[in-house]
Design a protein that fits this description.
single chain, 359 residues, alpha/beta, Rossmann fold, SH3 type barrels, Elongation Factor Tu (Ef-tu), domain 3, 3 domains, six-stranded antiparallel β-barrel, five-stranded parallel beta sheet, 7 helices, 24% helix
């Protein structure tokens, strides 16, 4: 035994279960904690992150590993900080990423705080990312060995204080290796299927969810092209995303794509595929993992969505913790509300929310 205690955020899935098993094998005193998140009344069984079935599996894993297991009720906090953020983002005409907010406020917020209250030395999850510490004691967030599963993009909100108490046991593993380990540990989740949906949507389309939770979601308005010509009517701006082609309900002889949502005038602006390419945008509320860079202008790569490629960019910093990004080559569908995350090599420098896309 190494004498250190670690709280593992468990979900009833294979990744967090294997993380707990690996840490116990390494000699840590492991405590499992599962979050009880908000879900709509009557939809508790389909909320991806904390269904009764997921809770049952997490408890079985904890029993198999012979570790203590707790549940932490964060339903109210989750609703206020994640669900409300999601709904309000669409009201403002942006496309929010609630998973990043959840990491900031729930996992490395409520759950991290709970881990410390238990006297734990460390907090751990089943995320795929690496942490290193240099000779000056500075922590670095790095891409995972399995680049197909790397989750550093959604972890760019972590601070030095977070990283100093965080362990990522899956850092050097691939997904097939994790599943193999789950079988070797004889965990009941080895073959559990993953879901990529937002947990609180309970498997339904986000537009249906917004209809129930957002006033004026279905307020119709004009669809115009970049020249200001009226092409048709939209059903409500929240039903559309930047880059969307299908479901526009217009026919002008060529494919048209959503370029911008003008909330002030309740107008949807569309254009050709080429017109969705942009190379200049601003990013606000940036978290720099190692601290604000000393250089006010520098080159790096940037991801503008979780699944986007790494784009070469020039970054110019401003005094208000925002920046101007110029891409070496224009890219499709850069979307306000999504995160822009900056890298140099394998290191995640940090990131913030795309604020304005400049033409």
């Amino acid at each position: 035994m190494n004498g250190k205690t670690v709280v593992v955020g468990m979900s009833g899935g294979v990744d967090s279960s294997v993380a707990a098993a690996l840490l116990k094998r390494q000699g840590y005193q492991v405590i499992g904690v599962m979050l009880n998140l908000w879900s709509e009344v009557g939809k508790e069984s389909s909320n991806r992150c904390c269904t009764p079935d997921a809770m049952r599996l997490a408890k079985k894993v904890a029993a198999k590993l012979d570790i203590p297991f707790y549940t932490l009720d964060v339903r109210e906090r989750f609703y206020q900080q994640i669900v409300s953020y999601f709904v309000e983002g669409y009201q403002q005409g942006i496309t929010p990423n609630p998973c990043i907010q959840c990491n900031r406020h729930i996992r490395w917020g409520a759950l991290f705080e709970f881990a410390l209250s238990l006297g734990a030395d460390y907090f751990s999850t089943g995320h795929y990312a690496r942490i290193s510490q240099d000779e000056q004691g500075i922590y670095h967030l790095l891409r995972a060995k399995d680049t197909n599963k790397d989750q550093s993009y959604v972890l760019h909100v972590l601070t030095q204080a977070d990283l100093s108490r965080t362990l990522f046991p899956l850092a050097e593993l691939t997904k097939p290796e994790v599943r193999q380990l789950a079988s070797e540990f004889q965990l009941p989740v080895a073959n559990r299927v993953e879901s990529q949906d937002l947990c609180f949507l309970s498997g339904e389309d986000y537009r249906t969810f917004l209809l129930r939770h957002m006033e004026k979601t279905a307020q119709p308005g004009a669809i115009i092209d970049t020249q200001g010509r009226l092409l048709g009517q939209h059903r409500g701006l929240a039903f559309y995303t930047i880059g969307q082609r299908k479901g526009l309900g217009i026919n002008v002889g060529q494919p048209m794509y959503v370029i911008k949502k003008d909330v002030t005038n309740n107008t949807l602006i569309v254009g050709s595929r080429e017109e969705t390419r942009q190379s200049h945008f601003t990013v606000a509320r940036i978290n720099w993992i190692r601290g604000i860079p000393t250089e006010k202008e520098f080159d790096c790569t940037v991801k503008v969505r979780y699944l986007s490629p790494f784009l070469n960019a020039r970054v110019k910093l401003f005094e208000d913790n925002s920046c101007h990004v110029v891409l070496a080559q224009s890219y499709w569908d850069i979307t306000p509300g999504q995160a822009a995350v900056f890298y140099q090599g394998d290191e995640c420098l940090g990131g913030g929310m795309i604020q304005t896309v400049l033409t």
